Amino acid sequence: MERPMPELPAVDALHLRNPAALLLGQVSRELSPEDGMFHGNAEHYLSCGASAYNVISAALDLSGVRPRSMLDFGAGAGRVTRWLRAGHPQAAIATTDIRPRDIAFCQAAFGTRSWLSGIDIDRLSAPETYDLIWVGSVITHLSEENSLRLMRKLFSWLNPLGLLVVSLHGRFVQHRAAQFDHYGVGAGRWADIERDYAARGFGYADYPGQEGYGISLCSPAWMAAAAERVAGARVVLFSERAWDGHHDVVALQNRPVTGQSG
């Protein structure tokens, strides 16, 4: 006999902000038993997804996009996907990650079009294009070069006027690093991150024993300059600590600024 899928317990909607608070009753409580983002605190898990939904909604409002197709890139087991599904029940939503069981869960639980991603940015390809791509806590783990390469790659998957919404580590993370064990890279490597951050606005170090995967830190100025290096990008939103009071968020629209009116 199969074991029933675990479910998230009820959470008081008063702890959430609109527009996500209005959706709480429609958000799936189905939880993957292998969800790496759930650590026993249902309120924080749901509020984190709600916070992402709120900043995505703000970017959509500012851009004027009404998405019919979405991609949650690096979706895991659906911490944010469940909110996108609740808020956009008619949209075609895709999820991708490097863990097959996570994307299989998203497909079964949220009706997504799931596909397996990879770590080679140059070889990444999407089966279709999208009106919205959400990238939460991915570039926060990549080097400067790979961050720019991935942003350009994902931007190329947007439909005209489509929106790329990305989370980043900024000044808040810089100031709290010592309190949080230097985000797993150690004091020495964090000092290297700080040095490069001070010199050029972007710092990165691998996690011990993990080449090409670690912790990054980028300034608002670096993000603004990076946006200018993504051809055709219009900056719709940049907000510090917009996701879960922790990550900065930038939204880039596939709408060249030069020569446009309105």
TrEMBL record:
GO BP, sorted A to Z: methylation
Record has Chloroplast as a keyword: no
Source taxon at top rank: Bacteria
One MF annotation (Gene Ontology) recorded for this entry: methyltransferase activity
Assigned keywords, A-Z: Methyltransferase, Transferase
Record domain Methyltransferase type: where: 71-164
Protein name listed in UniProt: Methyltransferase type 12
